[in-house]
Amino acid sequence: MAADGHDLAVVDEDPEALQRLPEAWPGRFIHGHGLDTSVLVEAGIATADATVVCTDGDNTNIVIAQIARKRFDCPCVVTRVLDPARAAFYDRMEGVQTVCPTTAAIDVMTDAICATPGRSSTAA
Amino acid sequence: MYIIIVGGGKVGSNLTSTLIKMGHEVTLIEGDRDRYALLEETFEHVVRPGDATELFVLERAGVERADLVVAVTGDDEDNIIVCQVAKEKYGVPKVIARVNDPRNQQHFDMVGITLTVSATATILALIEHELPQHELVTLIDLKRENLEIVEFAIGDGSPAAGKFVRELNLPSRSRLISVTRDGRAEIAIGDTQLAPGDLVMAILEPGVEDDLKHQLMPA
Fold first, then answer.
1. For the whole model, what pTM was predicted?
2. Which tens digits make up the pLDDT trace of B89-145?
3. A60 contacts on B by Cβ (under 8 Å)
4. Which element (helix H / strand E) includes A79?
5. Is A32 part of the contact surface with chain B (CB cutoff 8 Å)?
6. Where are the domains of chain B?
7. Is B26:B60 a contact under the CB 8 Å cutoff?
8. pLDDT tens by residue, chain A, 124 residues
9. Contact between chains at B89 and A89 (C-beta distance less than 8 A)
10. What is the 3-state secondary structure (H, E, C) of chain B?
11. Closest chain B residue to A82 measured between Cα atoms?
12. Three-class SS of residue A53?
């Protein structure tokens, strides 16, 4: 996103997370928890065009996504939900898009399997 | 009633025993294996293992026929998700959630979980209640009715001291309920005269607190 010239702010409760970003990374880094609305405000959520929620906790993500959508009226909210069932349920919620890496991985793997001829066809 | 309790800590397990004694049908869901093993010794088939934020766990516990779901885990996000899913996906008529961090109360309100219990907030209110010269203290928050019952002390410098209730220019969306003096409470009527040291209870709609304070407390 930064390479495409977007204005970015990253929120993480681990200050070390900043180390993973390249030194020349142009965005802002805010140390804090995404459930803390003052941290979100500091990150500029009130004027953000899009919010991406991808912590390692499904439930945390779903709650933060709803805060971005319902409290701050963010026009585009995308969130990571590993559990396919919860991802499907919350994807129906207006204004919140869920991305399920589990389903995506299953799809890619299924495609890879189906694209490979099985033993019987090579033997034939 | 059929009640599902999520979270088998001290709150969840004691709640389960009490509700069973009251004759309700209860299922307790506990996510931690070791804790589950311990609970199973006491509760046997009543307790089930699993993460209740996974939909199939709730489904196997019979969420679709539950009259009430109570989420009392130590994790606010989990409590929010359990209650929201129970209500919106499975149509459970009533949900109650425990709020661990009072700062998260707003998130419960946001998703429409109106019945919440917060030990920290309750204890804070009790402490405020016991302190002299306290400000407006919310005693009961009736979210569904959009009303609050508050209490406050009439201080020496209060503009209401010495006045009759009927003389007060109270906000229209508020009423005084009672006046407690020397440990004795009376219903507040027009002829009740307020004096410094009185504890007054009032019912009001959220939003008129400041108007009420202005009328009754020293500036």
1. 0.74
2. 999 999 999 999 989 999 999 999 988 988 877 887 777 666 655 578 888 888 889
3. 77
4. strand A76-80
5. no
6. 2-120, 131-216
7. no
8. 888 889 999 999 998 988 888 888 889 999 999 999 999 999 999 999 999 999 999 999 999 999 999 999 999 999 999 999 999 999 998 899 999 999 999 999 999 999 988 887 655 4
9. yes
10. CEEEEECCCHHHHHHHHHHHHCCCEEEEEECCHHHHHHHHHHHHHHEEECCCCCHHHHHHCCHHHCCEEEECCCCHHHHHHHHHHHHHCCCCCEEEEECCCHHHHHHHHHCCCCCEECHHHHHHHHHHHHCCCCCCEEEEEECCCCEEEEEEECCCCCCCCCCEHHHCCCCCCEEEEEEEECCEEEECCCCCECCCCCEEEEEECCCCHHHHHHHHCCC
11. B54
12. strand
In whole angstroms, give the CA distance from residue A84 to residue B215.
55
DSSP-derived 3-state class of residue A52? strand
Give ipTM to 2 decimals. Answer: 0.85
Subunit contact B110:A67, Cβ cutoff 8 A: yes
Cα dihedral A40, A43, A49, A54 sign: negative
Higher pLDDT, B2 or B215: B2
Enter the CATH code of domain B2-120.
3.40.50.720
The CATH architecture annotation of domain B131-216 reads: 2-Layer Sandwich (3.30)
- What's the structural domain count of chain A? 1
